[in-house]
Amino acid sequence: MLIEILQDQKFERDSYLSNTYIPRDSLKKAKKNLTNKLIKIITGPRRAGKSVFAIEILKDTNFGYVNFDDERLLNVDNDELIKTIHEVYGDINFLLFDEIQNLAKWELFVNRLHRLGYNIFLTGSNSKLLSSEMATHLTGRYVPINIYTFSFNEFLKANNIEISGLKLSTTEKGKILNQLSEYQTIGGYPEVVLEKVDYKNYLNVLFDSIILKDIVKRYNVKYTQNLYTIAKLLASNYASEFSYNKLKNFSEIGSVHTIKNYVSYLEEAYLFFYVNRFSFKPKEQLKYPSKIYLYDTGMASALSLSFSKDLGKLMENRVAIELKRQQKEFYYYKDPDNIDVDFVIKENNEVCELMQVSYDINNEKTKEREIKSLMKSAEKLNVKNLSIITWDYESVENIDNLEIKFVPLWKWLFLLQFNL
Questions:
Q1: Which of 60, 89, 243, 388 would be 356's cystine partner, CB 3.0–4.6 Å?
Q2: DSSP for 7-43?
Q3: Long-range contacts of range 10-17, CB-CB < 8 Å, 24 or more positions apart?
């Protein structure tokens, strides 16, 4: 019976409410949306903490909770559902619907409830499905909130470490770099960080679950192994350019159209995201390969076929994740002479910063190469704000009337929390 399902889920909700959690960096800002009448839509990877985040916002209210990641609710009658929610929770105005994308025509149902005056929170693990339906039916009536895996600041909190400021002793810096190295390797999935589980096993199982549950089932993918092949190829080549034709050549899939679909599904399921090559002409961006990144560096470590970690690529992937978390508009840059820059950042339709990422900047040849690429690109793109994210090197250097900031990754990550 439906009432038994919702009572089971109320027990689940109440157990969430009785626990304490690592406060997310964006929680205070999100709580400001509690009483406005817009629909709050929380999206992000599976197991990244979306449900807990929503419950933390709502914990001082009496709210109804329905988790649509429950196969018993696949064919639920919407009117019966609302009646039963009130039967279980009484007189409520707040509703939290978990993994809403699993409910057929959810957007129409939610729209109706919104018109009736309910204050609605939704979570979802499919970016494109949600965005397309929001754009069609909920235009101007919702607030998007993105929740990714733990930031470095949240990772440190989970390990009871606090950075009190930017001036650290040698010992403090060593401990922070140790934590950063661990963070780069295992990533920020809450259960990995808090429960100290084997990250490779956990993330491989999660990866398989997302492939099967959020892609194969949803899109009726017939050739599951081909999808896995594409996913593994991308995972082993993170922070690198990719093209559909190249993926076609390295797989047994004969159709570029099919590969495009597979890559799109993987992106929608919050496993990968891609970054376009910068051009002043937006149409030209489509002619060039994109760069692929994973939503979590732990996934990069766990899924990569390589036996050794590429520390520079892990750093680059981490920077890409954080730029995306900050909702920055960013690209990579490469000119015909193969002079390249990892990140071109735009604000208000203007290029405002060029950023390189380099682990081994203490190597003189590496440093010269990174500076050369940055300065040549700065001249072509007419940009003066230049930075190189390093592992531990910090400096400000003036070269040919251009100032280049060398910023350690830990410090760059720490400063980001103040923008959330």
A1: 388
A2: HHHHHHHHHHHTS--PPPTTHHHHHTTSSSSSEEEEE
A3: 10/65, 10/88, 10/89, 12/65, 12/67, 13/55, 13/65, 13/96, 16/51, 16/52, 16/55, 17/55, 17/59
* Rounded Cα gap, residues 242 and 237, in angstroms: 8
Q: Cβ distance 213 to 71 under 8 Å?
A: no
Q: What are the average pLDDT values for consecutive 10-residue runs of the chain, which has 420 residues?
A: 96 94 94 92 95 96 96 94 98 96 90 95 82 67 92 96 83 94 97 96 96 92 93 93 90 90 95 95 85 96 74 96 96 92 96 96 91 95 96 94 95 80
Confidence (pLDDT) at 306: 62
User: CA torsion 241→243→246→247, rounded to 10°?
Assistant: 100
Q: Whole-structure pTM over 0.90, yes or no?
A: yes
Q: Residue 133 and residue 136: Cα distance in Å, rounded?
A: 5
From CA 230, how far away is CA 252, in angstroms rounded? 10
Q: Which two tokens stand for residue 102?
A: 């699993």
Strand partners, 96: 65, 121
Q: Which helix (H) or strand (E) holds 343?
A: strand 340-347
Residues 198-217 as b or e (16 or more Cβ within 10 Å = b): ebeebbeebbeebbeebbbe
Residue 244's contacts (CB-CB under 8 Å, 6 or more residues apart) are: 256, 259, 260, 263
Give SS3 for 162. Answer: coil
Block residue for tokens 């999660």: 206
Amino acid identity of residue 174, one-letter, is G
- In single-letter form, the type of residue at position 254 comes to G
Other beta carbons within 10 angstroms of residue 196's beta carbon come to 9
Q: What angle is formed at CA 135 by the lines to CA 118 and CA 287, rounded to 5 degrees?
A: 155
Report the alpha-carbon distance of residue 71 to residue 280 in Å, rounded.
48
pLDDT number for residue 308: 60
Residue 193 pLDDT: 98
Residue 130: its pLDDT value, please? 61
Residue 273 identity (one-letter amino acid): F
Nearest to 320 by CA among 148, 174, 143, 128: 148
In 10 A of CB 140, how many CB atoms? 5
Q: What is the pLDDT of residue 307?
A: 54
d(CA 333, CA 81): 51
- Residue holding tokens 């100032």? 403
Amino acid at 218: R
Nearest to 407 by CA among 229, 166, 188: 166
Residue 338: what pLDDT? 85
DSSP per residue, 142-160: EEEEE--SPPHHHHHHHTT
